[in-house]
Amino acid sequence: MNRTVVILLALVAGWIDAGSFVGLHHIMAAHITGNLVILAAAIATGFQETDLLKIFILPIFFMAVMALTLVHDRYVATHDDPARHIRGMLAIEAGLIAATGAIGLLASFNGWELSFWLALVIATPVTCGMALQNAVHRFYPIVGPATTVMTGNITQFFIDRTRGLAGHASRSLINDMPKDNSLLPILIIAFGLGCVLGAAVTAKVGNGAFFVPAALILIGAVFSRTAAKAE
Predict the structure, then answer these.
(1) Model confidence over 126-170: pLDDT tens digits?
(2) Quick one: which of 138, 153, 148 has its CA closest to 191?
(3) Residue ranges of the domains in the chain?
(4) Which of 42, 55, 206, 223 sits between 20 and 30 A of 165, alpha carbons compared?
(5) pTM to 2 decimals?
C-alpha cells in the first residue's frame, strides 16, 4: 500500500480522537479502548450523565466490527481485488465520518444543546467509520501498520469471535504486514499532528470539523487508485 495513504489514515485517526474528545463529551472514537481509562477517571472523580457515552460507544464499535466482518467475508472477500476492496471501504469510512460532520453542523446551526442523546447520535457514524478503519488493517495487512493505537487488538478479537460464531476459522494476518521501520515514526508524527489539528479546529468551529478527516480519507482512496494505476 502507498505510504501516503497510511500516513493520511494516521492523521485522520489522531484528528478524530482529539476532535471527538473536544466536541463530544470527552470520548475517543478512534482509540476506542481509551474510553475505558477516561471512564474509570470519571467514576473516581464524579460520574455524570454524559459519561455514559464512554460506555455506549464501546458496544457500538464492537457491533460495527462484527457487522463489517460478516459483510466483508460474505460479499467483499469473494472477489479477488484487494486494492479495490480497500478503496471501497475507505470511501464508506469517509461517508460515515462526513455523516457525523453533517449532524454536528446541523446541531451547531440550530443551537441545539449537546445532550447525551444528541452526542450519541453524532458520535455513532464516526465510531462506525473508525471501526472500519481498524478492520481494514486486519483484513488487509498490506495497508501497513495500524493507525489507531491499541484498538487494533480488540478489533482482531471481535473479527475472530464473529468468524467463530459463523463457523469459520480465523487467522490474524498481522504478521503478513510489510515491514517498514522507517514508516512508524512518520505515522506517530502524523497521528500527533492530527490530534493537535483536530482539537484546535473542533474547538473553533464545532463538530462540523469532521468534514475535514472525511475529505482526507477520500483523498487517500483516490490517491491509492492513482498509485495502483501507475504500477
Answers:
(1) 999 999 998 888 888 888 777 876 566 566 678 877 888 888 776
(2) 148
(3) 3-230
(4) 55
(5) 0.81
